[in-house]
SGNH/GDSL hydrolase family protein
Amino acid sequence: MTRTRWGRLARIAAVAGTALTLAGIGTPALATAERQVYVAMGDSFSAGSVVLPQSDLLTCARSAINYAGLLAKQLDVDELRDVTCGAATTSHFGNPQKGIVSGTNPPQYDALSADTTLVTVGIGGNDVGLVGLATSCVNLLPVGASCKAANTTGGVDKYATKIDAFAATYGTVIEQIRQRAPRAEVVMVGYPTGIKPGGCWPLVPVLPQDADYIQANIDRLNARMAEQSAAHGAKYVDIRTPSIGHDACQPIGVKWIEGLIPSVVNNSFAPLHPNAAGLAAVVPSIRKVL
């Protein structure tokens, strides 16, 4: 074949390729970008409960600067449906939740739809009672009854058993999301480090062994979330590691988790929950997995 004929065929192929692209076939150089719809689901750790400013104080205690809102701005999504809610459990994904002060919240699954492209989920702490565990471990004296001892009598760890039994629910949540939003990327967001090894009595008034017991159960729940995420094809975001050194024992300006007496200078009024800095710190970890 002559060089002239090769050139002619190349020009024909180029014209045909352009036509196919303009018709929406082949490389979508001129195609319209996909609409980005982000649904944020979860409990108070995701909602940023009682971190000012609030966008929904009465029904969910949802912060206007929670990680979903910050992430949505950074990703420049077309629509954010933030249904995170204080006190939520996985039962509130499929069922209505009574408002914290007033009103009723629809099931969080209702926010999902076929056009959803991203879903973040932070849940499970209330299902297994982690905040209740922490408050039950409060000991105003440096000596006293240990909550770890009370929860591990007879060689059976009540909370470890509860967490392991709950683990499969994470897989169910991921599959339920996929049924409603088959195109969405599902991202499971873990819980942060709450307290340093050995604790910091009396700043956070729990005995050293109890501080370690609380954190061990947070870690166990995170591990089960990570395992179920891998088993069901979702992404898991480790918040525990980057939050080391920012626990409730740290000074104002360093800590990302508030103690039993919140430091209101951080605009945070929820004990044992993330403050504004803690919410913002979640965003880079989520972006790493996207």
